[in-house]
Structure formats: structure tokens, C-alpha cells
Design a protein that fits this description.
It contains 11 helices and 11 strands. It is α/β, with parallel strands linked by helices. The chain starts with a strand and ends in a 13-residue tail after the last helix. It comes from Thiocystis violascens (strain ATCC 17096 / DSM 198 / 6111) (Chromatium violascens).
């Protein structure tokens, strides 16, 4: 029996968590990262990590792809499109018949501004920025590759991802980086990285060619409410004054001008997912409890809205 083998283009915090879980299940894992230093660290974890700059094809990547049974692309596209398809698309074409699953990590930004509508995967995308249009183009390119090679290709549209190791509202507060953003009526979803990995693993076990998934929690919420909840958990005050819109970067101004309420029914129906962290509350409490080492924390009392 062939040992399942995962290749991940882009071993960031999502890719590494997926890789580590796959290794515990007996998989072989390889993938790319940006630097030789990080590659050395990842090899200590049992991952065949290969430096890849997205500017030129890598012979070592080509060699590692030859034994891949499953592939994840977590690298964002640039001006020249998806670097994986541009530099290694011909190598992927040659794997027709051997790849059992391909996944592409995209963004819910492809939907554009959706106002108060709840949006599922049948919503026609309407990207409002060049970056999000590139994401949509990359989605199409991966689905096309899957169709041409009879490889089950899947698109995962992601909102903001948070995780326990430096990427959460709690970390922002503790580091002094937190900014209070108040935009009445503006909400968006999030996803804990562990729930994202669970979705990817479930899809690996249940391939559905051409399927698109919103990978999101159950409750879209305003940024200010989430920050205040995180502050109450760790016993600090949130930043007292709202961050002036003029102080936001162009990207942040664009983001906070949009509103999205994501439906996650498809991951629950198709993949039988039960979210470990269905809202930001459970996710942030778990992070706070891990940081303090004091066991279960009482839930902060939230104001009625």
C-alpha cells in the first residue's frame, strides 16, 4: 500500500500545523518555505522542507512532487499569477492520475462587499481589489487544472485566521499592537487555525472534485466586540479611543469598509465538521487559558446588543 504523501506549497502556520498532524498519522510530508534557515528548522520536525522564492522553478521541488499523493497550495498569487502553476504547472500536469487531492487556500475577499446578506459558496464573486481578482483567477486556474487532469481540486475561501502562537486579539493586546476599530454595522467571520486544519483533513478523506468551501466560524462579529472580549479575558483594558480611519493603511481601510456574513453550512454538511471553536469566544478563551495556565477561565459578561 502506498504511503500517503502531502506536498504543501507554503509552509506557514497553517501549512505547518497540517503537516505536523499528517506526520502523526503516518504520512510523508514535504513542502516549501521562504528561507534556508526555516527549512532547517522544519526538517527537524520530519518535514522535507525546500526553500522556494516563487521566482524560479526548483529541481528539488520537482523531485519531491514526483511522489506526492496530495497537494496544498497556500502561496498567494502575484502580478504574474499563481507562482506554483507558473513555475511547476507542467510538473503537476505530469502527475495526472497519481494525485488524489489538490487544495487551494483562497480568501473570502473574492466576494467583495456583501452588506447584510448571508453568503454561501453559490454567491457570484465580485472582487473589489486587484489582489482579490488575482485570487479568483488562481481559483479558476486550479479548478481548470483539476478538470484537465482528472484530479479532485478544491477551493477553501478563508476569512481572518487566528491561532495560539502570535496571531490573535490576545497577542495584539499583550504586545501593545492592538487598535480599536469601530465601524458600525461592519462584521466579519474568523476561523481558528485548528478548525481550518480539521476542515482540510476532512476534505482529504472525502474528495469532491471542484468543490468550493467557506471555512468560517458560526458568528460574524465586529472587530471592537472581539477585542473587548479578549481584553476582559486577560484582565486588561482595550485601547480607549477608536483608531482614526485616517491612521489605517489603505488595505485596512478597504477591509473595514466591507461587510461579510459567511455561511459555513457546506463544511458541516459535506465534511461533517463540528467546529471546536464555533465562535471567537471559545477560541480566545482557549488561548487565554493556555497563556495563563490557570485552567478554565470564567466567560466575560458581554453587553447586550
Amino acid at each position: 500500500m502506498t504511503t500517503p504523501s502531502l506536498f504543501c506549497f507554503g509552509l506557514g502556520y497553517t501549512g505547518v500545523r497540517l503537516a505536523r498532524t499528517a506526520i502523526t498519522r503516518g504520512w510523508r510530508v514535504a513542502g516549501t518555505c521562504r528561507s534556508a534557515e526555516k527549512a532547517r528548522a522544519l526538517r527537524m520536525l520530519g518535514i522535507r522542507a525546500i526553500p522556494f522564492d516563487g521566482e524560479r522553478a526548483s529541481p528539488e521541488v520537482k523531485d519531491a512532487l514526483a511522489w506526492a499523493t496530495h497537494l496544498l497550495d497556500a502561496i498567494p498569487p502575484g502580478e504574474d499569477g499563481d507562482p506554483v502553476l507558473r513555475l511547476h504547472g507542467n510538473h503537476l500536469e505530469a502527475l495526472a492520475g497519481s494525485l488524489k487531492w489538490v487544495g487551494y487556500l483562497s480568501t473570502t475577499g473574492v466576494y467583495g462587499d456583501c452588506g447584510d446578506d448571508w453568503i454561501d459558496e453559490t454567491r457570484t464573486p465580485s472582487p473589489a481589489t486587484l489582489e482579490n481578482q488575482r485570487r479568483l483567477d488562481a481559483e479558476s486556474a486550479w479548478l481548470d487544472l483539476g478538470a484537465r487532469t482528472a484530479t479532485p481540486a478544491h477551493i477553501f475561501r478563508l476569512p481572518g485566521i487566528y491561532e495560539p502562537e502570535g496571531r490573535s486579539a490576545i497577542d495584539s493586546l499583550e504586545s501593545g499592537r492592538a487598535r480599536r476599530i469601530v465601524k458600525p454595522g461592519q462584521v466579519f467571520n474568523r476561523i481558528h487555525v485548528d478548525d481550518l486544519v480539521a476542515v482540510l483533513l476532512a476534505s482529504l478523506e472525502r474528495p469532491r472534485a471542484g468543490r468550493i468551501y467557506n471555512v468560517a466560524d458560526d458568528e460574524p462579529a465586529p472587530a471592537d466586540k472581539v477585542l473587548s472580549y479578549a481584553a476582559a479575558l486577560i484582565g486588561v483594558d482595550p485601547p480607549p479611543e477608536p483608531f482614526a480611519e485616517a491612521e489605517l493603511s489603505p488595505f485596512a481601510r478597504h477591509f473595514y469598509a466591507k461587510c461579510k456574513r459567511l455561511s459555513n453550512d457546506r463544511i458541516k454538511r459535506d465534511l461533517e465538521i463540528q467546529l471546536r471553536y464555533p465562535t471567537y469566544r471559545e477560541g480566545l478563551r482557549a488561548i487565554a487559558e493556555a497563556c495563563t495556565g490557570t485552567g478554565t477561565l470564567p466567560a466575560p459578561v458581554e453587553p447586550q446588543t
